[in-house]
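Model: Ready when you are.
Researcher: Fold this.
Model:
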Amino acid sequence: MRARRGCAEGGIGVSPSEQSETVRDRCLFRTTSETKRLVVFADIGQIAPAVLLPALADVVALRRDVRLVAVYLVRPVGGMLRRFATRGARRMQVLLGSGRWERALDVVAADPVAAIAGRGIPVRWLPSGDPNAPSVLASLREEFGASCGLNLYCMHRFRLPLLAALGRTINYHNGALPGMRGVRASNWSIYLGHSHSGYAFHEMSEALDDGRILIEGEVELARGESAADLELRKALEAAARLPALVDAIASDAAGRGQTGVVGYFSRADWLRICRVDEPGSLDAGEWFRRIEAFLKVETVIEGRHVQVTGIRRTRPGTRPGFMTSDGQWLQVTAIAFWPAWVSRLGLAGGSH
C-alpha cells in the first residue's frame, strides 16, 4: 500500500480508497524489470480482433506484470467508412429479403481503437500490412522494448527476425488444433458438419499453427448459424479467457504440445470450394452446404459469371436457375447478397 500511495500525485498520507481512478491507473502502469512488454498486431476489420483487442486492453490495465506498449494495425482506422457502408448495404439486403442480419456485423462496425486510444497506448498502421518490415523491427527493439507479442489475424507469416524481436509470441486461432489448422476454420466447421468449433491461443513459430497451446476452448454449433456469428461467439468466449492468457504470459507458462490428427485448410482450398465452373456438376445438397458455410459460390448462370448467395428448390425452368447433378432445379434468389432481379438490372452482383 505504501508504494501505491507514493506514486500518486500528492499521494503521501492519502488512502488508496480516496485516490481517483486515473491516479490508480497511473500507478498500475508503473513497470518493473520483470514486466512483460506486449505488442499486438491486429486486423480490426475482422470480428475476433474487434472483440479481443479492447477486452485485452481492459485486462492489462489492471496488471503490473504485463503492459500493452503498442498496437500495430493491418488496415487503417479510416477503413471504418467501408465497414459502415457494408453494414448499411447488408441491412438493405435484409429488407429486400435477399440476406440475413448477423450480430457480428454490429461488432465489426464498432471502432475497437477508440477503446485503447484513451489509455495512451501507441497505435501504428502497417501500410503494407507486413509486420516483418525493417522499420517495424527497429521500433520493437528501440522504441517499445518489446518482450512478447500477440497476433490477432495479421495474416502475414511472422518470420524469424520478427519473432526474435518480439520474444515469445502468441497467436489467436479460430479453430481447434491441430485438426483445424489454416484459414477459415469456422466456415470449415460448418461445412464439415461438426458439432463443436474450437479456438486456441498458441505460441508462434515460422510453421503455421503448430506451437504449444496456452488457452483453448470450443462452442457448440447452432443450427443455421452463419460463420460470422460463430466467429463472434468464439471470440466472446476467448475474451473471457484473456485473464488466464495474461497470467500465462506473465508466468512464462509452458502450455501443452499439440496432439491428435493434423488437418490443414489453405486459402487455395477455400477458393476451390467457392468456385464451380459448371453449376450442374454438384447435387442440390452440396450447393446448400457450400452456401450455408461459405455464404457465396462463384459460378456461371445463363452465361454470366456471378456470386450466388441464395438458392431455393423450385419448379424446373424458373429463372435464373439450373439443374443439379441429382436432377433438382435450383432457382438463384440472391447474387452477391442482392435479390437476383436487382442484379439482372445491373444494379449489383457479378461481372460479365
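Researcher: Now this one.
Model:
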Amino acid sequence: MHHCRPNWPIGATCGDFFDYNRAVRSILFNRWGMLMATYAELKAQAEALLAQAEQLRKQERAGVIAEIRARMAEYGITAEELATTGTRGGKTKAGRSKAEPKYRGPNGELWSGGPGRKPEWVRNILAAGGNIENFRIA
C-alpha cells in the first residue's frame, strides 16, 4: 500500500494504474496517438462548420446577386424570362409553342386534344359512352 497516495483503492499498485491508463488511452486515442473524438464532439464540430458555412454564404450572397445582375444586363435577360421555368422563350423542349387547351374537364382539367395519350378524365368520359365534344371550350 502506498501511503503517499491516499486516494488509491486498498491494495492498488502502480502497475494497476498503468494498466488502467493504458486502457483509457486505447479508448481515447487511435493507434497513431491522435485523440479520437466522441459522437458529441463530432456533432458539435459539424454544427460549428455548418454555422461557419452559413455565415460565409450570407457574406458571399450580395456579391453573387451583383454578379447575376451584371450577367443579366450583359445578355439582356429580364426577371420575367427567369420566372418562366422549364420553358425557353415560351416554347417547349421540342421547340414548339404549347398548344392552347380545347377541352375543359368536369373538374376544370384542361386538354389540348393533341396526339398522344388522352388524360384519364377523357378516357373515363369516352368509356362511359359520353361525347368529348360536350366539353369543348367555346
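Researcher: Key takeaway?
Model: The CA atoms of residues 36 and 72 lie 50 Å apart.
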